[in-house]
Amino acid sequence: MAVMRTTPPTPAAMIIMSFSSSIVVVVVVVVVVVVVVVVVVVVVVVVVVVVAAATTYVYLIVHSLLTLILDPHTTSSGSQHSG
Protein backbone atom coordinates (compact mmCIF):
# COMPACT_ATOMS: atom_id res chain seq x y z
CA MET A 1 0.00 0.00 0.00
CA ALA A 2 2.85 2.43 0.81
CA VAL A 3 4.52 1.71 -2.54
CA MET A 4 1.32 2.46 -4.41
CA ARG A 5 0.97 5.76 -2.53
CA THR A 6 4.45 6.99 -3.42
CA THR A 7 4.35 5.97 -7.09
CA PRO A 8 2.48 8.14 -9.61
CA PRO A 9 -0.66 6.69 -11.25
CA THR A 10 0.38 4.12 -13.81
CA PRO A 11 -1.80 2.48 -16.46
CA ALA A 12 -1.93 -0.57 -14.21
CA ALA A 13 -3.25 1.53 -11.32
CA MET A 14 -5.78 3.16 -13.65
CA ILE A 15 -6.85 -0.29 -14.85
CA ILE A 16 -7.20 -1.41 -11.23
CA MET A 17 -9.27 1.69 -10.41
CA SER A 18 -11.54 1.20 -13.41
CA PHE A 19 -11.77 -2.49 -12.56
CA SER A 20 -12.80 -1.65 -9.01
CA SER A 21 -15.49 0.73 -10.30
CA SER A 22 -16.69 -1.98 -12.67
CA ILE A 23 -16.73 -4.35 -9.68
CA VAL A 24 -19.07 -1.90 -7.94
CA VAL A 25 -21.29 -1.85 -11.04
CA VAL A 26 -21.26 -5.65 -11.18
CA VAL A 27 -22.14 -5.87 -7.48
CA VAL A 28 -25.03 -3.44 -7.94
CA VAL A 29 -26.30 -5.39 -10.96
CA VAL A 30 -26.01 -8.69 -9.07
CA VAL A 31 -27.89 -7.25 -6.09
CA VAL A 32 -30.65 -5.93 -8.36
CA VAL A 33 -30.91 -9.28 -10.15
CA VAL A 34 -31.05 -11.16 -6.85
CA VAL A 35 -33.77 -8.85 -5.52
CA VAL A 36 -35.80 -9.25 -8.72
CA VAL A 37 -35.42 -13.04 -8.61
CA VAL A 38 -36.48 -13.14 -4.96
CA VAL A 39 -39.53 -10.98 -5.67
CA VAL A 40 -40.50 -13.16 -8.64
CA VAL A 41 -40.09 -16.33 -6.58
CA VAL A 42 -42.20 -14.90 -3.75
CA VAL A 43 -44.93 -13.84 -6.20
CA VAL A 44 -44.92 -17.26 -7.86
CA VAL A 45 -45.13 -19.03 -4.49
CA VAL A 46 -48.01 -16.80 -3.36
CA VAL A 47 -49.88 -17.38 -6.64
CA VAL A 48 -49.35 -21.14 -6.41
CA VAL A 49 -50.56 -21.21 -2.81
CA VAL A 50 -53.62 -19.10 -3.61
CA VAL A 51 -54.48 -21.21 -6.66
CA ALA A 52 -54.02 -24.41 -4.67
CA ALA A 53 -56.22 -23.12 -1.85
CA ALA A 54 -58.89 -21.93 -4.30
CA THR A 55 -58.76 -25.24 -6.17
CA THR A 56 -59.14 -27.18 -2.93
CA TYR A 57 -62.01 -24.93 -1.83
CA VAL A 58 -63.82 -25.28 -5.16
CA TYR A 59 -63.19 -29.03 -5.15
CA LEU A 60 -64.69 -29.35 -1.68
CA ILE A 61 -67.74 -27.30 -2.66
CA VAL A 62 -68.28 -29.24 -5.89
CA HIS A 63 -67.70 -32.55 -4.12
CA SER A 64 -70.22 -31.72 -1.40
CA LEU A 65 -72.76 -30.52 -3.97
CA LEU A 66 -72.31 -33.64 -6.07
CA THR A 67 -72.65 -35.77 -2.97
CA LEU A 68 -75.86 -33.96 -2.04
CA ILE A 69 -77.26 -34.31 -5.55
CA LEU A 70 -76.20 -37.87 -6.31
CA ASP A 71 -76.49 -39.46 -2.88
CA PRO A 72 -78.67 -37.35 -0.58
CA HIS A 73 -79.39 -40.18 1.86
CA THR A 74 -75.83 -40.62 3.10
CA THR A 75 -75.01 -36.94 3.73
CA SER A 76 -75.93 -35.44 7.10
CA SER A 77 -78.99 -37.63 7.60
CA GLY A 78 -78.67 -37.22 11.35
CA SER A 79 -78.49 -33.43 11.26
CA GLN A 80 -81.56 -33.17 9.06
CA HIS A 81 -83.76 -34.71 11.75
CA SER A 82 -82.31 -32.69 14.60
CA GLY A 83 -84.58 -30.03 16.01
UniProtKB/TrEMBL annotation:
The chain crosses the membrane at residues 12-34, 40-62. It comes from the Eukaryota. Keywords: Membrane, Transmembrane, Transmembrane helix. This is ABC transmembrane type-1 domain-containing protein.
